[in-house]
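[agent] plan:
  1. take the single chain provided in the ticket
  2. run structure prediction with default settings
  3. attach structure tokens to the ticket
  4. add a short note for the reviewer (M.T.)
[agent] executing step 1
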Amino acid sequence: MVNQLKQLYEFASFRLDPDERLLLRDEKPVALTPKAFDLLLLLIENKGRLLEKEDLMRALWQDSFVEESNLSFNISTLRKALGEDPKQRQYIETVPKRGYRFIADVRIIEQEIVDEQEIIRVAAVEILHENGKTQFFNETEINEVQKSDFSSSAAGIKSDVKSIDEAPGEPKSFSETKSKSRITQANYLIIMALAAVFIVAGAITFGIYKFSRQPLESTPSTVSQPMKVTRLTTARNATNAAISPDGKYLVYVIDEARKRSLWLRQITTNSDTQLIPPDDVKYLDIVFSSDGNYINYFKADIDSAPALYQIPVLGGTPRKLIEDVPSPALSPDGKQFAFIRQSADGEMTLSVADASGKSGEQRLVTRKQSGFLHSPAWSPDGKTIVCAAGNIGDKGRQVNLIEVRLADKTERTITSEGWKFIGKVAFLPDGSGILTTVSDYSFGPYQIWRVSYPEGKVRQVTNDLSNYGNISLTSDSKNLVSVQSDIRPFVWVIPGTQTAKARQITSSPGTRNDYWGFSWTPDGKIVYVSTAGGNHDIWIMNSDGTDQKQLTFGEHSDFDPSVSPDGRHIIFASERSGNTKIWRMDINGENLKQLTYGGTSDYLPYHTPDGQAVVYTSSDTRKVNLWKMSLEENSLPVQLTDYDSTWGAVSPDGNMIAAWHGNEETGIIKLIVVPIEGGDPIKSFSTSPTAKTWADIHWTSDGRALTYIDTIGGIGNIWLQPLEGGSPKQLTDFKTERIFRFAPSADGKQLTFSRGIETNDVVLISNFR
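[agent] step 2 finished; step 3 output follows
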């Protein structure tokens, strides 16, 4: 009996099987995306050797052109899956600006591929009789036994008995025993018993491995065709979209020059019709009616509460269905809507109401201060509502999907993943599953996941660096549309606001500073966030982009750096303790210390000019508020605002704080100025819907104005709002691309910012199941 051998790799407590594309840790499967597995295998096969980034990208994406950030993203995925800790255990070494090498000790082992059929045949050949002699059987008789019982254990595998040892003291040839041997009932039972023993023995050597070959719940099953993504729009400025149940029509929103319009496309002919002209409004959600005859959309005017409207699919006069209800979800028959309402005392409730307005609200489930609800979606039969439910605790923000039955209001948790963020939720029209957008980062990107229903098994549908903003499905569950957003930012520096003298100081979009923040040291260096090390870490470099050094390490994201006025410390937000909290370290990355604790998420720290305190944003499951904390030992934080406010920036004289105030969902957001002691705003300024709210606010060096980002027609610039009032003024004059984050130098003479291309287009995804 000759068995084949296969090669496995072992390191630390891990075992990697290339043939089965399986990674085990302590004999338990580790979920990896296909691309992350390929990357790990490449690194292990070249253990100790530096693999250049370009070589890795060519090997992993042979037929595609991808950005370096795709490689960084998969390195980060691997680090998290392996549970890396730079101070205790590290498997992948980053060589800045060059590539990566696998540095852990690797053992190569060979494992037999056990032939179960051969084990059964050997068991059947030698049967020990009660007289102590060995009975032999011919090939035909063995086959007869196998056909009757053993075939179910090893069907379809062929093997031949090459030689059989004769019993001691009883030398007989195979031909001599052939005519004398017969299978009795006793022999048959013995055959079965010994075969079972052999099978169990084989299972001991490879049983655990065999069971581990079963597909992971979080990985996709084999499909006949690969998933296909088709771009339906190319204008780069779509903000929302929905596909008709029959798949013939697409409705989408175009955002240009501070105004948004609603369009209808006939997919087969690519012909477009404007349904609603551009206006200063915000479309928050769009969905076709179940019969495909109407389009329902949730719209917010700049100065009014949001409302639900309906328009015929081929155009006409819109009519208002529901007024002043937060993000309603219509039932499949259009007769009811579900929504989440928050009471004055902070209680969140999932409710349903009659769409005609003739009956009141029916409360289904509630969450107190410790939890939250959002994104309701109806089951196709209209009997169940699924929504996201979670809380913020010591382990950070954790969200899962729950279902609520309307008949008896019973609640059941569907998933157990404990994701950080869940965005959109949609049932597959056939009821076999749920699609949802998920992010495990504080600032995205959101990826599409599929959840089997009612089992709750999950697998990732998309796996890239794009952000997927919504989900809409055809009635046959074969196609979905979403708005896919892609960002390629680079770091720039300009003297003052002289646009013509702007210079790009990074050549790789791997810095990904579209959301993560900048700060200047007093001596003119830039502290920033980069993914070059495979994770969102804080780095420092010269103002010309040279001498880049990594300051933080680990599998958790570090972001929002703020350098102290004396240049000795950096305060930043980090997820390293589970929840997002404020941390401090020396300017060289040493002496890490956690500053804030508790069940909230704390981020966006901003030093006071004297360096003695920090103002930051804190969010629980209900509100986002400004807080302040002295940096002296044993100090306790103090709440400054009791209304929604974020991104607090302290004035140069230390007497005021500028912040964003309002509700991002309604589009009604304003710039406010608050006393350093907190309380109600002393000044308030309206902004356009295209202003990049929930992003940087900075004071001018004289303290007489505020600066922020506004994007008009896809082009971003820095704008200035005088504190004395009046219209905002444009400071920079860029003609292309967007600005994502920015920060002035300590002396106000230079400006650094992340700037690049952002595309937002509707995509059609098929073969995703």
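[agent] step 4 note for reviewer: The first strand starts at residue 4 and ends at 11.
[agent] ticket updated
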